[in-house]
Write a structure and sequence with these properties.
The structure holds three protein chains of three kinds.
Chain A: E1 3-7, H1 13-37, H2 42-51, H3 57-82, H4 90-108, H5 116-142, H6 146-166, H7 204-215, H8 223-229, H9 242-269, H10 280-290, H11 295-319, H12 323-345, E2 346-350, H13 353-361
Antiparallel strand pairs in A: 1-2
Chain B: H1 2-24, E1 29-34, H2 44-58, E2 63-68, H3 75-86, E3 91-94, H4 100-109, E4 114-118, E5 127-132, H5 134-148, E6 153-158, H6 163-177, E7 184-189, H7 196-208, E8 213-216, H8 222-230, E9 233-236, E10 249-255, H9 258-270, E11 277-280, E12 287-289, H10 297-311, E13 322-323, E14 329-331, H11 339-343
Helix pairs in contact in B: 2-9, 3-4, 5-6, 5-10, 7-8
Chain C: H1 3-29, H2 37-55, H3 58-82, H4 87-106, H5 131-136, H6 140-158, H7 160-170, H8 172-177, H9 182-208, H10 220-230, H11 235-257, H12 264-286
Helix pairs in contact in C: 1-6, 1-9, 1-10, 1-11, 2-3, 2-4, 2-9, 2-10, 3-4, 3-9, 6-7, 10-11, 11-12
The chains are: A mainly alpha, B alpha/beta, C mainly alpha.
């Protein structure tokens, strides 16, 4: 093989911190090359991509709004993946939460009472949890593989939502277009700052991160090492009830995905539509792994991915860079981050260099 | 110190896109577009982008356009629209129904920017709406189908049961019945705007069940290609698909947004822009018929005559009497269906056997 | 006679799923989970179509599709074998990368048209009633899918290399100790999987719906992945799954044509629900299909 890896005796602390920086640097270089290739001034282009989204209060607010559902879902997924349960259907659980919480809003929002919003959040989490428990139960009681069932249930949830907003839940005064009435203030997330879209729901993402750190606290030691280096199957042998473990993991991740769904509906969207998610449930899987299944890492990864979306939009607007170029760049960023993380646990030898070194030493 | 230097550097770089650009093009009007699909969808969004390019050509030197493609309806739409407004666009076209509420919200925050939302119904001082009277074209192709079908069965590939699609089905059948009262329709919903494979499968299913005319309200030329392979006729959607069905295509509906985009941009340049609701049809050429091909001269003459009388306002596809499926009289003799009822149409006309989606 | 065209349509719908999934099955049997099938498939569709237009040859197009899928798979191999990176995340990144790159490559070919790949015609045989068109009148992709199915089954259970590949998937450490080249076998498996996904994509843009539009795979790569799980990593069950999924998809379209009055969303959801139900039934009677034990775990040889 051209590339050989040698396991370090201990994970490199330097690389743990430097790896994301190297990955970002490589992405910047790639971006500059790609921009130059399509005739855009690289310095100007990089400013648009990576700095403009961080330069105004509005775009920072948008960054937080975009990152929060990703982080919220990814924290849940991390817990699930660490329990060796492969929940690929967070997108469906997000929709289920949005539907159940949205139903509560439609049914009770005219009451205008304080409990409408908390009720929505509660039912949103419940909806996601119940929907996640379907693949969990099918695995535990019937042995059906959860990767397939959770993924298939995404499509089913999408069609269910489609049916509801086109049929029974349609706004009666909306010319029969597929959407519900706009939510009343009682069913809407209050804004944190006037004039933007930053709302209280965004705060639940860092809160979930904090809770997850405490929740995972007992096993946090040596965590990076285990997760990055080894199979996440270790939990199985810790003596827990495997069935209960799976159900719990799915319940937690489903609840967080459902919560993210209802927060988006009660926050930035403000009603139920046939399309409620730009693929948050799938993007969150990437965020979970980019963050090394570690809550703090997930917070950072969520922000980086959100930044790449915002930068891509800015680049389309300001530079008319095709969307596909941005997507290629996003893919490259992910590759770089993943590749650089290798050096935390391994040393790299090119062209069999290590073997020669060993021979020489002998 | 280092931190402050860094911040200054950041500010300098950040100012580049926001300041450097407008400075070099101060007098040009910036026009922004939001597309729900990729510009390469060969359908709805592609047609809007063709019109954007036409606008750039027609008003060269006076305007500068930009767009954001593939913006999902939902939480991202508002950010993308606001991004355009913030980048200095003074006129923003949001080209899908699902952008309606997001456009309303952004329009409120940017009173000095003009917004144009396609196919919606919420307006404001600085937010106009526009849409195509696609049903006019559907009436014409329905008539052609009525004349050309030998088996008297038409297959309709639907995307989603929304009012625009439903009114299209109704207008098509009213047109078909005007020349062949025994015409039947079979409808298959693919529940997607975009899945060429499924559109092809739906077309096959309809042809296998006896349809010898296929018409579609989905974006890709898949159904047209199947019609060509199976030797039946079909109509194009959004753009001219004749090369995908040189023997199959009879005509079709072409979305032609460029006249409207040029006119509205001129209005902003002249300072005469006002909000309103414009529905363009065959008359204003926002809806254009694809060439009448693969038909006898008589059918062609009929289609041309119908097109002309609809364009002249002499013929309305929903002229009374129009009955709903259950026999209720919806439009009295001598009247026509008012625009708001067409906009929100969720019932089938009498004679269509399928269950209405509403 | 409706049955014959119905079967022909089902075969067309199932073939890309079967081809992409067969490749992934081999990859997963070697212990590697590549979630990037959708990305490799859409690259195959894009490059296959572009080359077919430029050269005028469906065969060269199909080969280009295979090559594009393999090229993307090579990137995945570099990540997961070379750098021992997380396979799930690398696969998802590959999907994103492939979607973007295919869009860039195909951008200038939107709106171009080709005739569908030619169908077999054997004088006499293809004209037989009913069985003729189904058995002897398909295009090359369909026959390739059948050959692949037989070939993969034979390879995995009847050859030494196949046995070794499965052993590596179950326990790379002991396979390595026995002197097997774990990484080399996995590399070849990943490339094979990429080639299959690329071929499946090329089928879409050359045979199924011969044109290119961005994202035309419309999620078929994900279905293929799910079908591998459905099959419990056994090729014949994979074929069963692909044809079941294709059949329900097509049948619901035919059923709509008869005007059943059932909400179309429910009809569209049927293939997914049916797959879940059948999986549950199979899993219950046969027990949980044990996948390759080391699936998804990176292996780094300890020299």
């Amino acid at each position: 093989m051209l590339i050989e890896l040698e396991r370090r005796s201990a994970p490199s602390r330097i690389m743990m911190l430097a790896s994301p920086a190297i990955a970002v640097a490589l992405t910047v270089v790639t971006a500059a090359l790609l921009l130059a290739a399509i005739g855009v001034d690289p310095v100007h282009g990089l400013g648009v991509y990576f700095i403009a989204p961080l330069s105004t209060g509005w775009s920072l607010q948008e960054l937080a709004v975009k990152a929060s559902p990703l982080v919220l879902i990814a924290v849940g997924l991390a817990i699930c993946f660490r329990a060796n349960s492969w929940n690929i259907g967070a997108e469906g659980q997000y929709l289920a939460g949005a539907m159940l919480g949205g139903w509560f809003a439609l049914a009770y929002q005219t009451a205008g009472a304080w409990w409408v919003l908390p009720g929505m959040l509660l039912l949103g989490a419940l909806g996601g949890m119940l929907y996640a428990l379907i693949p969990a139960a099918l695995r535990v009681f019937f042995g059906a593989n959860e990767i397939l069932t959770s993924l298939m249930l995404v499509y089913v949830a999408q069609f269910g939502l489609d049916y509801l907003v086109r049929g029974p839940w349609r706004d009666p005064h909306g010319f029969n277009f597929p959407q519900t009435v706009a939510f009343e203030p009682a069913a809407t997330m209050p804004l944190l700052l006037a004039g933007g879209r930053l709302h209280w729901g965004v705060l639940l993402a860092p809160l979930a991160v904090a809770v997850a750190i405490v929740f995972l606290g007992a096993t946090l030691r040596g965590f990076e090492l285990r997760v990055v280096g080894m199979a996440p199957r270790a939990g199985r042998f810790a003596g827990f009830d495997v069935r209960r473990d799976i159900l719990l993991a799915f319940a937690v991740s489903g609840a967080l995905a459902g919560l993210a769904g209802i927060i988006e509906v009660a926050g930035p969207i403000g009603q139920l539509l046939p399309t409620l998610s730009p693929g948050y449930g799938f993007a969150a899987i990437i965020v979970a792994f980019l963050g090394r299944l570690n809550p703090i890492g997930i917070l950072l990864a969520g922000l980086i991915l959100a930044l790449s979306y915002l930068g891509g939009e800015q680049a389309q607007i300001a530079l008319r860079v095709p969307l596909d170029l941005t997507i290629v760049l996003q893919g490259a960023l992910l590759f770089y981050v993943l590749a650089c993380d290798t050096f935390i646990l391994y040393r790299l030898h090119l062209f069999g260099g290590r073997r020669k070194a060993v021979q020489r030493a002998a | 110190m280092i931190r402050r230097e860094f911040l200054r550097g950041t500010a300098l770089l950040a100012s580049l896109p926001l300041v450097a650009r407008p400075a070099q093009a101060a007098e040009r009007l910036k026009v922004g577009f939001i597309y729900v699909g990729p510009v390469g969808d060969f359908g709805w969004s592609c047609q809007h982008d063709i019109a954007r390019k036409a606008l750039e050509q027609a008003l060269a030197g006076k305007v500068e356009t930009t767009y954001v493609e593939n913006v999902p309806e939902g939480p991202d739409a508002e950010r993308a629209i606001e991004g355009l407004a913030r980048s200095g666009c003074k006129l923003v076209f949001t080209t899908s129904f699902g952008f309606m509420d997001a456009t309303v919200k952004v329009a409120k925050r940017f009173p000095e920017v003009k917004f144009e939302h396609a196919t919606g119904y919420k307006r404001a001082e600085n937010l106009a709406t526009y849409s195509g009277r696609f049903y006019e074209g559907r009436y014409v192709i329905g008539q052609i189908a009525g004349k050309m079908s030998k088996r008297g069965v038409v297959g309709y590939v639907g995307s989603f049961p929304i009012p625009e699609v439903v009114s299209g089905i109704n207008a098509f059948m009213l047109g078909a019945w005007s020349v062949n009262p025994a015409m039947k329709v079979k409808i298959v919903w693919v529940n997607s705007w975009f899945d060429p494979g499924k559109e092809a499968d739906a077309a096959k299913a309809l042809i296998d069940q006896g349809a010898d005319i296929v018409t579609q309200h989905t974006d890709s030329p898949a159904a047209m290609q199947i019609a060509e392979q199976r030797g039946v006729h079909a109509f194009s959607q959004d753009s001219d698909m004749l090369k995908f069905g040189p023997k199959a295509q009879l005509s079709g509906i072409i979305d032609n947004w460029s006249p409207y985009y040029i006119e509205r941009t001129r209005a902003v340049l002249d300072g005469t822009w006002t909000s309103g609701d414009v529905w363009g049809g065959l008359g204003s050429r926002m809806v254009v018929m694809a060439p009448f091909t693969n038909m006898t001269p008589e059918v062609k003459m009929m289609a041309e005559a119908t097109t002309a009388s609809i364009a002249a306002g002499k013929l309305h596809p929903f002229h009374g009497p129009v009955y709903k499926q259950d026999g209720t009289l919806m439009v009295k003799d001598g009247a026509v269906l008012p625009d708001p009822d067409i906009l929100g149409m969720n019932w089938y006309v009498k004679g269509i056997d399928e269950k209405a989606p509403g | 006679m409706l049955l014959e065209p119905l079967l022909l349509t089902i075969i067309t719908a199932a073939t890309p799923l079967l081809v992409a999934a067969l490749g992934e099955l081999v990859v997963e049997r070697s212990g590697v989970l590549n979630l990037g099938v959708e990305g490799m498939m859409v690259m195959g569709a894009s490059c296959g179509f572009v080359v077919a237009i430029l050269t005028g040859s469906s065969i060269l197009g199909a080969l280009a599709g295979i090559g594009a899928g393999m090229a993307l798979a090579a990137v995945f191999a570099l990540m997961t074998l070379g750098f021992a990176a997380n396979q799930v995340a690398s696969g998802l990144a590959l999907t994103i990368f492939g979607l973007g790159l295919s869009g860039l490559i195909g951008a200038d070919f939107v709106g171009a048209r080709r005739d569908p790949a030619p169908k077999l015609h054997l004088a006499g045989l293809s004209d037989l009633p009913f069985v003729g068109p189904i058995l002897f009148g398909e295009d090359g992709f369909v026959y390739a899918s059948v050959a692949l199915l037989l070939g993969v089954s034979w390879f995995l259970w009847r050859t030494r290399t196949g046995l070794m590949l499965r052993a590596i998937g179950d326990n790379p450490i002991s396979a390595h100790a026995l002197g097997h080249q774990v990484l080399r076998v996995r590399l070849l498996a990943i490339l094979f999987g990429g080639g299959c996904a690329g071929l499946a994509g090329a089928y879409l843009s050359l045979g199924y719906t011969p044109f290119w539009v961005r994202g035309m795979t419309a999620g078929r790569g994900w279905i293929a992945l799910a079908l591998v799980v459905f099959s419990s990593w056994i090729p014949w069950r994979l074929a069963l799954g692909a044809y079941l999924f294709g059949a329900v998809t097509i049948l619901q379209l035919y059923a709509q044509g008869y005007g059943l009055g059932v909400p179309s969303q429910l009809m569209s959801a049927l293939p997914y629900l049916a797959t879940i139900l059948v999986l549950v039934a199979i899993s219950r009677s046969h027990g949980r299909g044990a996948g390759p034990a080391s699936l998804g775990t990176p292996f780094v040889p300890d020299h």
